[in-house]
Amino acid sequence: MAQGFGLVTGIAALAAGAVATGWELERRLVAQRFKRRRELPGEAFFTLRAPGPEVVTSDGVRLHVEVDPPPKSDAGVTVVLVHGYVLSLHCWHFQRKHFRGTRKVVLYDQRSHGRSGRSKARFCRIDQLAKDLKRVLDATTEPDEPVILVGHSMGGMTIQAFARQYPKLIGTKVVGAALLATSSGDLKDHSIIPGVSGEVFPMLAQPVLSAANRVPALVERSRRVSTDVSFVVTRRMSFGSDVPAEYVHFMSEMVAATPMEVVGDFYPTFAEFDGSRAMPILGRIEMAVIGGASDSIVPVEHTQAIIDQLPGADALIVPESGHMGIIEHHQAYDEVLDHLVERVERHL
């Protein structure tokens, strides 16, 4: 959810010397380890592409949409993948590859992310993202075409807001959903910086972002120049285990592609978000909830809170998994999604 802010503030903290000694040692150890380590066969990240319809939101933002077609017209449910903060549709690389050729898959870049158009700051709110999702569904699916919504982090919050705004579509159009590494609220006092308390973190976050937005060119150059530091920060904040270096670089590229102004535009919406009213609505359909035991962005307690509110859901807490479990432990995530699809399709 907050990888972008975490990278910026993490690098700033390092520069200020707050945690520089320990992380500089880690940076050197990581660099040495990956020099010695034999790399796994490379994944062709950023290469999965497909055409899609042009979608324009209610306030005029163009959304980049891609659709992987089904192998045949009666291929079952359509899977719609909704990504999180400072990422893009490419974060679904493994899930897209997993479902490709077996199900119709719809992916899109959220407003101001990836190849979608830039949004005015006042519309960078989760409620607006839910309206955008409705536009995507209208443009990519038939009225009677059943869909499963799968959301990671901010994408999971988007699905919760969608359920609250369009409750009549839950159980009719939307027949299943998965909430991955996300929260139903109470994020305003959560800190993602080591040594900074949850009460202090919100007071620091907005001033840092405001200052960064006053000198965006300088900040963007710093983000790209501080390669080693960014690698360590990304690795720490995204993953909970010793992942291949290419996973970290993949994440770093996605985060670095998000302008600092966009990081600041979206940040306030997380403190405001409350998805609790969506839970009884989502409880009417087949659900899956997955989180990482080592998630430092959206702690596992938030996943457990959702599980408690959706007692009928398939639930999984993945050990040694950080916020980006859809990459780090993609096989485990894919297995749960497979089971969700099977359960839904039994009732179609």
Describe this structure in words.
By secondary structure, this protein is α/β, with parallel strands linked by helices. The chain folds into two domains: 1-40; 55-189 and 266-346, Rossmann fold (3-Layer(aba) Sandwich). It is 46% helix and 12% strand. The chain is built from 14 helices and nine strands. It has helices at residues 3-16, 20-36, 93-99, 126-140, 154-165, 201-214, 216-225, 227-238, 245-256, 260-272, 279-282, 300-309, 325-328, 330-345, and strands at 55-56, 62-63, 65-68, 78-82, 105-108, 147-152, 174-180, 286-292, 314-318. The strands form two sheets. The chain has a seven-stranded mixed sheet, with helices on both faces. Strands 1-2 form a two-stranded antiparallel ribbon. It is globular. It starts with a helix and ends with a helix. The model is unreliable at 5-40 and 191-205 (pLDDT under 50). It comes from Enemella dayhoffiae. Residues 78-329 form the AB hydrolase-1 domain. Pfam families: Abhydrolase_1. This is Alpha/beta hydrolase. Keywords: Hydrolase.
Task: Chart the SSEs and their pairings.
Blueprint: H1 3-16, H2 20-36, E1 55-56, E2 62-63, E3 65-68, E4 78-82, H3 93-99, E5 105-108, H4 126-140, E6 147-152, H5 154-165, E7 174-180, H6 201-214, H7 216-225, H8 227-238, H9 245-256, H10 260-272, H11 279-282, E8 286-292, H12 300-309, E9 314-318, H13 325-328, H14 330-345
Helix pairs in contact: 1-8, 2-8, 4-5, 6-10, 8-9
